[in-house]
Amino acid sequence: ERITQTVEITKHVVDIEEKGVKLRLTIVDTPGFGDAVNNTECWKPVADYIDQQFEQYFRDESGLNRKNIQDNRVHCCIYFISPFGHGLRPLDVEFMRALHQRVNIVPVLAKADTLTPSEVGRMKNKIREEIDHYGIRIYQFPECDSDEDEEFKLQDQALK
């Protein structure tokens, strides 16, 4: 009998302070995602978790005591794409299509340092084409202000 792989959702909370600004960062990890033989709707626990966090925040905002509300909503999903293969897997497409209306998705080419620069370029272009083809909305970096220095503009352009 096969052991079924479950998608586990693990939260790590870190308090960060930089230049007097305090920030609580919550990293939500999903070990086991996509590891099963049958990955049908394995993205569902992730989508349910995101929806639960939004519902909880809405309930807290709608309540009478709104002083100490904790914002546990998921604001960004960094989605790692395997560098081995020829673009997006069907699981990648299914996951991103299911979640792109719920959360900002930032696709990242995992282990890109194992590829040559030309391979990285080809892989990125292939992934961008597939994302456009399937109508997946991913996070777009905003335009930088016109009064920024040239070095910052170049850095911003490289990120895009």
Automatic annotation (TrEMBL):
A Pfam family recorded for this sequence: Septin
Encoding gene per record: Sept4
Record-given protein name: SEPT4 protein
Originating species: Chauna torquata (Southern screamer)
GO molecular function: GTP binding
InterPro entries given in the database record: G_SEPTIN_dom, P-loop_NTPase
Span of domain Septin-type G: 1-160
